[in-house]
Design a protein that fits this description.
One of its GO terms (biological process) is intracellular signal transduction. With about 160 residues, the protein is mainly α. Helix content is about 90%, strand content about 0%.
């Protein structure tokens, strides 16, 4: 009987230990499941993180490419502005030359008119030999007559020659 009691007590202790071990096993399995879930989440996060890193690298490459394109376009714009400024300077210089040539033409046409009148006057003198006197016009009269009809003025340096 003592042995049976002893065996029952051992059996009860073993059952208690069995329940305790089952409880610990269930807790361990729950912890393992939780860790696996966390591990799965970490793997998912790592995958997402790797994907985001790839996207960031791709965006950086695109930004670098766009920066290069922008710099290229800025260089082209600067070159175009420089060409326009150079063209404007050339056009202004040519306009100045054209204006000077117009003024020289006006002066020469006025001289030409004066020469024609002098020739007419000399011919008239030879034909009439003292019949009536017509006076020769000055260069300034011809220039003002020419300028009045053309609307142009000879340059100051040319006007001073015949005024």
């Amino acid at each position: 009987e003592v042995q049976v009691d002893e065996l029952q007590r051992l059996l009860a202790g073993m059952e208690k230990e069995h329940r305790s071990l089952l409880l610990k096993m269930k807790e361990g399995e729950a912890e393992l499941a939780r860790l696996r879930s966390v591990e799965g989440d970490k793997l998912a996060e790592q995958d997402r993180s790797a994907q985001l890193e790839k996207e960031v690298a791709m965006l950086r490459e695109k930004i670098h490419h766009l920066d290069d394109m922008l710099k290229s376009q800025q260089r082209k714009v600067r070159q175009m502005i420089e060409q326009l400024q150079n063209s404007k300077t050339v056009i202004q210089a040519k306009d100045a030359v054209i204006q000077e040539l117009k003024e020289r033409v006006a002066y020469l046409e006025a001289e030409n008119l004066e020469m024609h009148d002098r020739i007419e006057h000399l011919i008239e003198k030879q034909v009439s030999r003292g019949g009536h006197s017509s006076r020769a016009r000055s260069k300034s009269e011809y220039v003002s007559r020419y300028v009045g009809s053309r609307g142009a003025r000879p340059p100051a340096r040319l006007r001073s020659r015949f005024i």
